[in-house]
Every structure is written in C-alpha cells, then in structure tokens.
Amino acid sequence: MSVAARLRLARGAFTLDLELVVTVGRTLALLGPNGAGKSTALGMLAGMIDLDSGSIVVGGRVLDDDSTHVETEHRRVGVMFQDYLLFPHLSVLENVAFGARSTGVPRAAARGAALEWLDRLGIADLASSRPPQLSGGQAQRVALGRALASDPKLLLLDEPLAALDVEIREEVRAELGRHIREWGGPTILVTHLFDDVVALADDVVVIERGRVTQRATVRELVQAPATSYVSRLVASWSDD
Fold first, then answer.
1. pLDDT tens per residue, range 21-71
2. Of the candidates 26, 73, 29, 65, which has an alpha carbon nearest to the alpha carbon of residue 48?
3. Of 151, 152, 157, 154, which is closest to residue 141 (Cα–Cα)?
4. Cα 168-194-239 angle, rounded to 5 deg
5. What is the CA radius of gyration of the chain?
6. Is 209:32 a contact under the CB 8 Å cutoff?
C-alpha cells in the first residue's frame, strides 16, 4: 500500500505544483511557511479541493486523474484536522464511530470499530464523555481514533499539535508518534513546526510558494538544508 500524487492547482496569483510519494509504514512531512500550499495539498488529497490537473493513487486505486474523482466519503482517507472538529453534542464513542459510519459502515459495526480504537488509544474510559469535558491531549486521541476507525488506506494529519498548549505538546507528540507507528499505514503530516518533523516524520518535502524546494529524509534535511527558510528552522531547533 503506497501513495503517489501529482497535485496541480492555480487560484489567482497562487499556483501549486507538487509531487508526493509515500510508502507503507512511513510518514512524510509537508513542511513550509504559512501560505505555502500545505493545507491546500491536504485538501486535494482528501478530495475536498479539486485538482486542476494531475493524479492521486492510493494503494493502487485511482482517486483522481483526468477522468476520475472519488468523493471524500469513498476515498478511504482518514483526516485529523488541526482543530479536531469533534461534535460537541455527541459522546466520545459516537464521535469515533462517526469516522466509520461516514464510509457506509453499519451502526453496530461502526460502534465496534470505535470501541476497539478507544481501547487501543487508551481512552476507553472516556467513551461516554463529551468533547467539552476533554483535555487537549484527550481530544487529540479522539480525533485520531475517528480518523483511524474508518479503516483508511492513507492518514492525513493537519497541524495535529498546533492547537495544544506548549506545556503538553511534547508528551502528546510522543504518544501520537507511537500510535502512527502502531497503525503502520502511509501517513502525510502537514506542519510548520520543526519539532513535529523530527519526532514524527521519516521523509520531508519542503514547500515554499507552492513549489518544492527540498526533498530529503529528516537526517538529510538537518545536515544539509537547501534554503534559508529551512536553515532558520534547523538553527532554531538546534538551539532549543
């Protein structure tokens, strides 16, 4: 199971031209400043934003090309949004089950999948709680469970730690990395935080103004940053 995508889009003065390849069991970070096109690329992969041209193939299945567009709910792509977007009126169990229900899984089977993921994520005791009662770290695990309960072939993480307080970010980052590794599928992480890249990613694609400016493993990026933007990130991270 792997991912291959060529994403092209033009919106006014902004253009995006991006090629991505992610193999099973690896996490690819899309790193770049605000406005670089990271979240736009994620929206295209999720089927929420149409490509102008290009293609998306996940696990050998064509999701987008010149003649094909698979709708979001049928793509088998799990998305964990920056603000988690949990339904405040639903319980934790119902929120996680929604991930499976949205792909057409019957209610009983969806609840079973949700219970399994709550147990795997260590939050089974929160099944009857509602999102306003959760801490930031707990809400993140619920959002991850909802994304994984849909049995995705690709996991997309949109700035997954940006909404957390700095004091708990390191602990939650370590937990997130462990859960991603245990899941074992291809993952694409969108972030502007270099700590996220170092802790969670295997490979990195740097985007600046809609264009790729560097492709590397995390180690290669640290050892040989290709642009001033990456150099500043590495220098700041090294000083921490």
1. 999 999 999 999 988 999 999 999 999 999 999 999 999 999 999 999 999
2. 73
3. 157
4. 90
5. 18
6. no
